[in-house]
Amino acid sequence: MIVMKADASERELDLVLRRIESLGFRPHLSRGVERTVVGVVGDERQYEAEIFEELPGVERVVRILHPYKLASRDFQAADRVITLSNGAQLGGRDVLVMAGPCAVESEDQLRTTAALVAAAGVRVLRGGAFKPRTSPYSFQGLGIEGLRLLRRIADEHGMAVITEVITSEDVQLVAEHADILQIGARNMANYALLRVAGGAGRPVLLKRGLGSTVDELLQAAEYLLAHGNQDVAVCERGIRTFETSTRFTLDINAVPVLKSLTHLPVVVDPSHAMGRRDLVPAIARAAVACGADGLLVEVHPDPASALSDGPQSLDPEGFGAMMTSIRRVAGAVDRSVA
Ligand code: PEP
Ligand code: MN
Fold this sequence. Notes:
The chain is elongated. The protein has helices at about 10-20, 50-55, 105-120, 145-155, 170-175, 190-200, 215-225, 255-260, 270-275, 280-290, 315-330; strands at about 1-5, 25-30, 35-40, 60, 80-85, 90, 95-100, 125, 160-165, 180-185, 205, 230-235, 265-270, 295-300, 335. The protein contains 11 helices and 15 strands. It is an alpha/beta fold. About 35% of the residues lie in helices and about 20% in strands. It folds into 2 domains: about 1-60, Phospho-2-dehydro-3-deoxyheptonate aldolase, domain 1 (Alpha-Beta Plaits), CATH 3.30.70.1140; about 80-335, TIM Barrel (Alpha-Beta Barrel). The strands form 3 sheets. Strands 7-8-9-10-11-12-13-14 form an 8-stranded parallel barrel, surrounded by 7 helices. Phosphoenolpyruvate binds next to loops.
């Protein structure tokens, strides 16, 4: 990482960028308020940092010890704020709630859910069109029909859409319909998919694998960033531990840990972590209290009839109550809920 002097000229910066490229590295520019920082991406083992130190305008060269660079706070100190097409922001002062059904099941189901979450102030509609189910015999989603329904119904409420993409071949199609591409826990380490999603020109929400460390999550995020995508957010959704009282164990520690290591927005999914709707609001409040920038929550107008994840989906009343309670917690930590 090359830190430019505060008074470095554009010409000096240009020289540094050209030197980086001539050595076969890729430069990543980050213009801060006080300093411009240039990330040097590539295999740096063959060169000493000093080769850049002598260039005019360079203040110092810092080796980043994390296996991820672009995702680290060292590279970019200020929080990344992702602005969606409807103006909603992830990573800013507001806590962004993304809510909707686990899977898009029908026009009726999505319409009812969208209306109820929109009425509670939600600006991002979630819903799976391509579902990565554990069993091949479970409902796999409506596919393209689900994407069309999400887009149309979200637009009626001025909402953005987040939906999962499970194969590289579908990235383009999903990007045409969605505002945020969701990479699911089971695909966190699907590097071929990450490469394609990194170049899709859409924000990506990357969920932590159920058996992955924070470090592995950030290296997966690095794939997206290194392929040109700046708008990346990471999501804690529960990991597998020896504890069986809940579906997964929400690693609440991961929220402040991630906030300290990365400038990327941090989202929490309390639904998949808990697996039980009665426990979802409590951990959603904890997530907001400890600094999460967003929540991804499953809601269903009639959870008993849901085709996937009914037991963890909030019903309309439960969702309303959760929204009221997280607004209070957000206020207590100097934030608000969008
Ligand atoms: C989902 O959000 O619908 C989902 C499948 O989550 P995860 O990838 O975290 O299991
Ligand atoms: Mn689900």
